[in-house]
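Final paragraph of the annual report: two paired records, presented back to back.
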Amino acid sequence: MYHYTDHDIARMYHEPAKRSMLVSHQDERGPFARDRARVLHSAALRSLADKTQVVSPKEGDTPRTRLTHSLEVAQIARGIGAGLGLDPNLCEMAGLTHDIGHPPYGHNGEHALNELAVHCGGFEGNAQTLRILTRLEPKVLDERDHSYGLNLTRAALDAACKYPVTKTNPDGTTNRKYSCYDEDRQILEWVRDGHTDGRAAMEAQVMDFADDIAYSVHDVEDGIISGRIHLNALWDQEALESLGASGETAFGVSADRLVDAGGRLRNLQVVAAAAEFDGSLRGRRNLKAMTSELVGRYVGAIIEETIAHPNNQAGEGGDMSAEHGVNPSHARLGRIHGDLIVPDQVLTEVTLLKSLAVLYVMNTPERKERQRNQRERVAMVFEYLTAGAPGALDPMFQLWWEQAEDAAARERVVIDQIASMTESRLARVAQA
């Protein structure tokens, strides 16, 4: 396993020892197991149970929510991480956090809040994740009531940063995707201390593609069960070409490569069996067999390709060698060292499966009308809280509103509260 240093396991705030123990007991968990537990027990993670993944939690019998999706991403990330010699708890924790900053209504809510947050610099779900982990989640306070959020280790926060940049660069240009708001820049600088380039941490790279695997395989499973997606499109050349074109537009992978990926998928026995889905016991078993085999197909290929890649061979980095009792072929991979290598065959198949959800679930007229109503609801709540602040805010957010130095900071507090809401609560506030 990769050798994580004292620098990696440092926390921003030194916490006092627990004082209510019945017996003298030494916590034998490692720092990353504690990080994982803190995220697992957080209110922010629980709230994802009432936040949309692909379809709303209220649609269908057992659709995936942001929470169940996050649990699946965490499990896949743990498997990839273990295969690469990374700390499994750290990779699993990264998977649990990857959507924790998402507001009600998923990406649609994200777009709505970004349009509303005009004075405080916009809204980005990835940046909100870091803000939750380091400030908004009520876990660790100092004696002056300054919040450190969950007070995770440096490596844990680094693993949660998919896009480790602020919105605004030093030269004044801006990034479309970023993991840190400009006002939280000092936090990101602490997290990224030790990096010599702009690459995401190795564990964050694992989390990122674990998300793609879960999205492509499990969300397509939801679409098939709900009747929105039919795998027979893989055998229909016209439908497959339309799917390829949709994927090229949405994800930037050439349509020809996606069509070839469709040909490979339809030649897999588990895919052919799942294409006959009829809702029966056998049909559901075949569908589950397909999702299981595809996840294993992609995870195994990524692990093998990443370990074999010349850039990831043991070399520089003296603290990652056999003297620490680790396999030299894995010792190079971890935190600031290594690149996750995704074989083209995996990338194109995963992208094609993601394209199924885009074409048959996300781009329907009914969904677009529902999204318009959702954005209006978010705007109504924003106007209500802004007009009624601080009294209309929750007590926790009232304190931050009163401490805010200017109108932009007060607007950020309102945005923070809306982003923390479940979809059910936001709907209740909008109707009040």
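The closing record of the year follows.
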Amino acid sequence: MRDFKERLPADRQRQMTNIFVDHANHQQATKAIRRFFKPVEGGVPGRGNICALIGESRTGKTYGASEVLAEYKPEIGADGIKRSVLLVDSPIEGGARAVLDSIASGLGMQVSLRMTNSNLILAILRELQRSEVQFVIFDEAQELFPEKNRKVLSFSRKLLRKMLNLNQFNILCIGLPETYSIIAEDSQLIGRGGLPYKRLRPYDWTDPVDCQHFRVLCHKFDEEMPFELSDFASMDFSSRLFKATKGCIGILKVYMIAAGEIALEAGSDRLELCHFAEAYDDRKRPNEVFNPFRNDPSLS
């Protein structure tokens, strides 16, 4: 028996939320990010190149960036804060000004609304130099290059070229798969290092190695959840989990938490298929009938 029954529901909820299960995609992501930052371990940072980390949603791209960022925390220097790594959360909308504001925010700059874009660009370039930035990461980078807004797309490309011209740091664009092709269309950007990239993919159930890795992931979640073991790694249970999540680790955790909360509310000692079935029903699209936790996954 596992020691969880005497714990408060809130504690068990927090345990589920805080679960981290290491996996191949996470290892690949962090390894690639570190290589894009410092091509040689223990060596100097790369400079003047643009790189890309791409993949479908919830494959671990942002988590990997956050982990690397945590290793290089800002420090106080003689003339202010120094940032080895700058993480920029790309804006969803707002045009060129929103792009500039997001960079300024990442740098901790206080910007007047009356400052022109041209002056703000100059201020950002100066601050990048003053704060001794060695690596810039744009998360959700596909938002910088909206194909339906050629004006913003063109502006973002020019801005990144200006930043790279400082020859001070590499820029990493993290985004959906289309991010690579949009950057590669710009001959001047791809000429900055040839655009090295890493693509993260969801697990593929038809690949024996991926299938085994996914089942290992399921077992690790089983060990970390505050319930009796449920045998998530069995072929039947894991195939249903795969069908629901399409092999994405982030979505797998979503279902673990959702089903876990349903099981907690029901007072269950372990997670059952019925808890996952209810969690899936809550999330399936209108008019969708199939539920992999109730129906045979092979019939979908």
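The domain at 45-200 is CATH 3.40.50.300 (Rossmann fold). This concludes the annual technical report; the extension proposal builds directly on these records.
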